Amino acid sequence: MGKNDLEETIFKTNMDAVKEIAYQLRLRNIGGIIIIDFIDMEEEEHREKLFNAFKEAVKKDKSRINILKLSEFGLVQMTRKRSCENLSQVMCEPCHYCAGEGILKSRRTICHEIFRKVSRKAHRYDNTQITVVVHPRVGDMLLKEEGAVTTELELEIGKRLVIVPSKKLHIEKYEIIWDENQGT
Predict the structure, then answer these.
(1) pLDDT tens-digit readout, 92-128
(2) Which domain holds residue 130?
(3) Are residues 55 and 12 in the same domain?
(4) Contact, 174 vs 107, CB < 8 A?
(5) What contacts 24+ positions apart, CB below 8 Å, involve 58-67?
(6) How far apart are CA 146 and CA 138, in angstroms?
(7) Res 1 pLDDT > 60
(8) How far apart are CA 30 and CA 50, in angstroms?
């Protein structure tokens, strides 16, 4: 962009970014402490112009904003008070599977969770088998990839583990039936 040197290119790039950043802050209704990392500029005059342009660009924003001066490293620290729910909060609801976390436990994690629970509680029951009802993908892992651990656990507790796949269960959910009268 700059016709003569790199410093001019960096300055113009940062100036273009100022408008977009201010727009995105408003559009996404981003709030809290915000750090903006502009490309480092050598000239103090350019840093001052960039800071003033940013202050001017956020004037359109109705939210309360506090901006600190541009650091030598090209960082601007600011706070912005969120005015209302952001766009995703208005248009979406939390996932009932992951409780809004956006991630699921891995199948291996679920298997080891089951192993720990069975290992801790198996001695409380006199039966010879424990039934574990799980999602088919978790059941597959318990029998194949984690088959050696499953077998080792059976030897440790002196009971047979019966793995029952159920498509009705969410992948993170399982039921351990300790004896004919009780399940968890």
Answers:
(1) 777 776 777 778 889 999 999 999 999 999 989 989 9
(2) 107-177
(3) yes
(4) no
(5) 58/22, 58/25, 60/22, 60/26, 61/22, 61/25, 61/26, 63/26, 63/29, 63/31
(6) 10
(7) no
(8) 21
Residue percentage of the chain with pLDDT more than 70: 89
- Token pair for 25: 């802050």
Task: Give yes or no: residues 74 and 136 share one domain.
Answer: no
Residues 17 and 85 in one domain: yes
Q: Are strands 174-177 and 160-165 parallel, antiparallel or unpaired?
A: unpaired
Please check whether residue 145 lies inside any domain of the structure.
yes
- DSSP per-residue string spanning 72-137: TTSEEEEEE---S--HHHHH----TTTTTSS----HHHHHHHHHHHHHHHGGG---SEEEEEE-HH
Per-residue tokens: 15: 């100036």
Residue 112 in any domain: the answer is yes
* Local structure of 57: helix, strand or coil: helix
Distances (CA, A) of 3 to 10, 17, 49, 59, 181: 11, 19, 19, 31, 81
Task: List pLDDT tens digits, range 4-27.
Answer: 688 888 999 999 999 999 998 888
Tokens for 73, please give them.
Answer: 């490293």
